[in-house]
Write a structure and sequence with these properties.
alpha/beta, 8-stranded parallel beta barrel, 21 helices, about 10% strand
Amino acid sequence: MASLLLLPCQLTGFKIFMSELHSFHIPVLGLGYSIDTPVKVARFGISSVISIMDDELLEKMRQYYCQETGRPYMSITPGDDDHRAKRTTAYLDLVNDIVATQTAKIKNLPFEDDSNELNKYFELLPDNSAVKKKYSVMKAMPAGPLKSSMEEELRNSVVAGDIDVNIMVKIDKLNKDKSGQLLPPEYSDASASLRGFAKSKLRSSVVLSAGYNPRLYAYIENYPAFFPDEKGNLDKKIILKVSDYRSALVQGKILAKKGIWVSEFRIESGLNCGGHAFATEGLLLGPILEDFKNNRNALAAELHEMCMEAHKRKGIPTFAGQQQLKIAVQGGIGTADEQNFLLEYYDIDRTGWGSPFLLVPEATNVDDTTLQQLATAEKEDYYLSHASPLGVPFNNFRKSSAEQQRKARAEKGRPGSPCYKKFLVSNTEFTDEPICTASRKYQHLKLKQLEEMDLPEEVFNAEYNKIIEKDCLCEGLAAPPLLKDNIPLSHNLSAVTICPGPNLAYFSGIFSLADMTGHIYGRKNLLNALPRPHMFINELYLYIDYLKNAAAELNLNARREKYLESFKTNLMEGIEYYKNLAQQFKQSLQEELGYAEKKLQTVRIPVAVS
């Protein structure tokens, strides 16, 4: 979506410069939950993010949508050269074309039919938007030339939301050709996904998440679309998902030295987001946002200067002027007051609302069984697990069919999963070639090793549960759209993994797109009756619990002890920050902060074993 929208306002004689129409986006949700979210919501000006890590799923969805829209479909098979990148490009081009067709159709609808998608487009906008206000004035006007003129201007203001894509940069195994020979690095998972996006029609951004990948960052330089064209514009942009300001500064400089501009830093709460939980060293979201607020302009200027120097060195066009550096935040946002506070106090450009949209069938893919489970779930059903083969804490759902399947396999003496897609293979403890710790092969070998160690029963059981807790995310996170749209399942595996953030405990029910946008903008309240602390307090409690569990670990070494002491200090400093900030909130935080402080003080960091 264009970063600026120019709307001439005939009522006042002034021109209104309107920034992005919606102040929120829908982040990537697993492999499949947001795989076609742009097809569902982009025509209403809502931006969203597609995961492009699973090329098999992309190909299945392309076949489905070609059939649904009457477009020709030609299969891209694993036997085709560079099939991963080609599948990515083909699917993204299809989504781009579908959204363009949808948006053009909306523009041609009559305003007289209040129930059509043209009116829905404007009704979904925030009430304080200049475009929404103009729409309301137009609807109240009598028929005539002035109203017709305003209708035309409003039609011209209809633009689709961004169709962004996500790459988890650490999912980057090297691949082999048909003969079993290792392919060059550019055919690795992450590089092929990037190439597929770079060659697509999309004029949008790739969100790079889950860490730093030097090989991938260097590979970006191969594609001119990430550099300014002759007019100084970018065809493709980079968004970095980061946990704190230091990470943004370091990674931003790495790319800027290559001449690559980071158009947005997307800050994610370490423990209050869905999916993998990348905990910070006790740094809380509020203080992190304060760092960005205070240093944003200096950061933008420094990165811009470094980019321009790199362009000059490369002998390529550079920017015509200072580029906009956007800051977004996501993780645990649950009310319009929280939304507005983030936008206004921290000068955030937009927020990310992820997990609540799992309850919106108009926007995401959740199969009927799982949707009903989420709609009626209790707070205890959401928990932080060690299910991910990546070795990173993973927000999980106790009622999911994947969790039930995992337990059933273990009870039958067959723990572990078949491993077909191999996106998360990384372990070489028992094999020369990396295998996945959730695989049946690895767990069989690891359990055999455990049995030979002759451990006390209590210790054995604890280690046994750690091994079998790992579960297959590749299949479970990709199954929902296939189940929802009656598409043949991959490898006939139907168990669903879902990874909502803990904030979803405060939403019960199934909602429409209008319901959820209305909740975000304060037009209605979708929260259930469960008492809900402020998002900052929720995150603080999660971090205190995380520290308490970490401090209970056995055989703590000196490095880990130092880390936990720093973690606790950062939490104490975060509490002091919130105490000073509390007067800014409509919701009283003092009592909750006092309780959290006392709870934190009870956490004792053990002395390291020498």
